[in-house]
Structures are given as C-alpha cells and as structure tokens.
Amino acid sequence: MTEVDVVIIGAGASGLMCAIEAGKRGRKVLVLDHANKAGKKILMSGGGRCNFTNYSIETNNFISHNPHFCKSALSRYSQWDFLALIGRYQIPFHERDHGQLFCNDSAKDILSMLLSECAQAGVVVQLNTAIQTIERLADHFQLKTSQGSVTSQTVVVATGGLSIPKMGATPLGYKIAEQFGINVLPTCAGLVPFTLQPEDKELYSALSGIAVHCQVSNKRQRFSENLLFTHRGLSGPAILQISSYWRAGEDILINLLPQVDLKSELKDQRQQKLKNRLKSILESYLPKRLISVFLSEDLLNLSLQDLSDKQIQQVADRLNNWSIKPNGTEGYRTAEVTSGGVDCDAVSSKTMESKQVPGLYFIGEVLDVTGWLGGYNFQWAWSSAWCAGQYC
Predict the structure, then answer these.
(1) Buried b (16+ CB within 10 A) or exposed e, 254-277
(2) pTM for this structure?
(3) Helix/strand/coil for 284
(4) Shortest CA distance to 186 belongs to which of 18, 27, 391, 341?
(5) Which of 149, 259, 366, 390 has the most Cβ atoms closer than 10 angstroms to its Cβ?
(6) What are the chain's domains?
(7) Count of CB atoms situated within 10 Å of the CB of 47
(8) The predicted structure's pLDDT at residue 301
C-alpha cells in the first residue's frame, strides 16, 4: 500500500502543473496516468510547437454554463505568470496572429520544463497505471490501480476530455464525478471541423485544400480567420472557433470577402463603364477554382455592363453572405477540446475543490470551461491547476 498526501489523476498540462504547486508546499504528490508517456497532448499541440498561452486572455474567450467561474483562476495565475516560468527556462517563443504564443523549437521544451519542475518539487510521476476504483473513507481516499493500492488525503482529477481518443482520452474524469454524485453537463466536441450535407459535400469537395480569409458567424458569435475547404467539409481556424458556438441543425453565415462590399464595388465599376468580365474582377479577390464552383460560367462570362442589379445582388449574396447548414462535426476524433463536463457550480472557483466531497478536486478540461482556439485552453489548464495546487 502506497501512502501519499495527494494523488493527481492525469499527467497532462493541468495535472503536472498542479503537482508542481502542491509539491512546492511540501506535499507528497503522486501523479498517475494510464499512458506510457506524460504530456502526450502537449507534445502534439500546435503542430508540435505547443500554443502554450496567449498575450490577451479575457474571460469572454471562454465558454461555460457558469461564465463567471473562470475569472478567479485566470486573474490569480495569468499568462504573465506562465511566461515568467518560461523565461526562467529560457524557452524561445514567438507570437502569431491574435496574440498566440508558440515555442520556437518544440513542444518538448514545455513538457521538459514541467517534468523538471516536478522533479525539483519531489513529485513522483507513475505511468502505465490504470485507475480501477476510488473510495472515500473517513479521512482519506483509497485507490485501487493496475499497479497496486494507494491512499491519499486528497485526489485531483486532471483527466482532460474526450477529444482525440487515439491519444488516450477517456471519460474517466466524468465517471469519477458521477460516482460521487457531482453533476456533469452534456459533453460534445469543441474546436472541431464541420462535415457537410451530401449534396454540399459533392459540390464543395472540389475545393479541397483551398484556404481563404473570411468572417464566419451565427446568432451568438463571429470570427474573422482563415477557412479551409477539405474533402470532408469545412475546417481552418474560423470554422474551429465557430464550432464551439454551433448547435446541430443551425446555419452558419460565411462572408468570403469580409473586406469588400461586393454589391457596391460591382455597381461602382459598372458605373465607370468598365467592360471587364465579372470573372476577371472576382479572380482578383478569390481563387479561380472557388469562383467557378460558387457561380455559373454563364454569369461569370458576362461583362460588368451586362450585369443587372439582380445579378449583382445574386453575386454579392453568394460571396458576401453564404449561408450553409453543416451536417455535423468530425467529432472527438479531430476535436481540439471537449465542451461541457463537470459542472462548475459544484466546484469552488477559488480552490477547484468539490463543494460536496471534501478533498476531491477537478482541474483543466474535465471542467465545463472551454477556451477559444489560440492558447486559451492551455492557460485554463495552468490557471486552474495552480489554484488547486495551493490547497490540495
């Protein structure tokens, strides 16, 4: 029987961060994970460069049934605190669009830093260990694992969500919550590509590989980012972002030329007596392949002078105001995150401890907090884990 102060289930971003903080307080910490390697998702994130945080972290970059829940953690351990840690290890990084921060070299730099901090804090990370049962006894927890039994004063659930099952994602965290009577809100894939209705897929699959800057919106949110046509449907940052706000059966609106009011532009050029064909004008804005799929050849071959107001409106609607109803999403297989999860109303926003089960903590993605694309989910992992690490 192993006896420790804290058991952390999950050796990912939040689990390792929490272990470091608890270890610094002199707590005897054991991190358990069923995988054969710690931080697998860290290593694959950001194309292997790990988008570890963002210069601009605001609470409105997060989605939750309880939108105020994340405020406390994000203010107490901010992006600047994590950047200070990065600075101590002299990890080189760079900024991309929208304040996103990536490692210059490799995501391995982040994982190595976390594991080094764990070692300095006396944390033991035990891999290839499956959790079989958890019991709450009078003043401690008892866990049966594939590597033997463990007792601990506290248990921290840092199991992540259901996204990317090939990396070892499981519903364990939700099952633990449910076992102890803690509410779990319905989960779904977040930051995920859309699949299309069969007739739309047939039409637009010819555009596979084309990326365009656009504005994507629905009734709740809008994003200006790149859209990528794929052989399965629609992807790219704009689509991943809006997917977290999308409801099944709902249309999304896509402006393929957000910088151009096409109706006014075409009417102005027609008034100037320009004789260019519509096709040549549109090709100065968008890829030829895209234009030929969206508009008929008959229309494209007309000169500006021959275009009626009705036809100009038709072109503008098609490119400035494209409405499409996704068939669904690609699901957890390719999702960056899991939306929904352990109900934040059941957890202390200060300590991350369950309000009904003393000594049981939930951090990171397992909670009903979903960040935007761009380093926000990592920052939530660092912030929520740091908070729990001060108390567990």
Answers:
(1) bbbbeebebbebbbebbeeeeeee
(2) 0.95
(3) coil
(4) 341
(5) 366
(6) 2-187+339-389 (3.50.50.60), 193-329 (2.40.30.10)
(7) 9
(8) 93
